[in-house]
Amino acid sequence: MENKMMHPPIMPIAPRPSQYGIEPALVKRRVAEMPGMVSLKLKELFPDLPDVIYPGPEDALEKLYEVAKEELRKVDMSMIQPDQSVNVLASHHGFTLFGGQPYAILLKAIRDVIIEKTGCRNIRLRAGVGMRFRETEEYMKRYGLDTYYEGKVKGIAPVDEGIPIETEVGTLYGLKSVYDADWIIHAHHTDVREVHFHRQIDKAVKPFGMSYARIETRSTYHQNLGPRAANFTARAIFESEFVQSKFAFAAFLNVGPHGVIGVDADNDLYAVNDRATFIGCQIYGKIMTLFGEIDECIAALDFPCPVPYVFSAGVIYANFVGANTDLYDMEKTPLPAYTWYTEAFYGKNGKPLLDGIPPLNPAIKMCVHNYSWTGYPSAFFSEHIPTVVVGAEQAKMFDMEPMNIKYMDHAVVAKTTEGAMNFAYNATGTDKVIIFDGAMGGLNCSRSLAELLIAKAPEVSERVEKELMPKWFRQRGVDMSVLNKLKNR
């Protein structure tokens, strides 16, 4: 008898034209369209998840715009004078959340309310990136932000001209174009994304050391200090006299793994940070913990993002690669100062440099790379996880990209999605499939994996609420009573 919690697959996020991926027309078939695939709605797996604004009815984005304006009107903007300038600071990852439109709506609402409350019209959008230096230029055009901001938009990259910022730990470097206005607005989101880096510590502050920073400072996360040790650089920059003299307020798109919950705007970034910590641990923590219960599977990548950033149930593939550990636990995770997937901690022989470095998630028996972008060094994934890439054009694109010239050395090519999946089924002996395709409101997977997740969800929910969440919050020094404040907002 069919389980009532299993639904027909949710439509995946559509392929997008980009210099970092193959032409959308080359994506002939999505993995969710393959036989035996179903969808699980996250709200049914975890009934206590909060209601969402988006995805929703046809007017959901209009409602989100009104919610954003209402929240922004509560913020003190009296410091902004009509003849001054304002930089609204965005980050590229926000545009990959739930189709990208919700984040664009927030950025539009910020501009509108600043004009409404202050009379200032010299409002510029600065959108930061990581390694894909032209990515935010594509996003701003796609969502009409270039015209909405009257041409005052700029994609900023970590190799742009820097500006020294004196902090309590010495001179660090931001991007000059971030700080070339009288005031700055920090426009971000609660998506946990790189929890393997920030470990849900000062997540809301992280862009000051990443999206808004020069490569010399930004690289502390990747090359110099390691992810956890590098967290202090973002806080040091934000708390510097220079940045504090320009910081007006923060406006966050509140998202969970199942959709957009609302908007959180405040002059106090650390208050936003505490509320974001609750969302990251309580809501995302259940999905992350549930993924850790998967015993074996084929992971299918089918989303317009670089390999590690493709989504399933709001969780990126890079985090699933580490789902065999508790990424939130600051005590028991082996060598928690290290990032488990980066080759920085693996030798040329492909083995961890130290015994305590955890292996990649052994539940992933094979990866079917149906559709994913270049723009991030990903050879480490194909080296450690057997990988099948669909289509000669996609394989060639990875083979020719400077950051991924070794990716195809460890992967094989299949002509079609059907061929890749049949190869994976035969080679692994499992029919459990999890699809990282950004399906909104749920997750697409095989029927056999759905049965496992449905069975495990109640126990996982109870364990997170009663055992794990109190520990995670205690480790971060966050008052549990803040949860009630979040619910009452």
UniProtKB/TrEMBL annotation:
<protein>
    <submittedName>
        <fullName>Uncharacterized protein</fullName>
    </submittedName>
</protein>
